Amino acid sequence: MVLRNITYALLAIWLLSGCSAEVHVDSGPPYEAVVDTRQLMNWIIDPTADVIWGASGWIMTEEGDEDLTPTTQEGWDAVRNASATMAELGNLLMMPGHAQEGDDWIEFSQAITSTSRLLIDAAERKDSQAVFDLGATLYSVCTACHQHYIQMESE
Question: Which of 16, 54, 105, 112 could form a disulfide with 90 if both were Cys (CB 3.0 to 4.6 A apart)?
Answer without folding.
Answer: 112
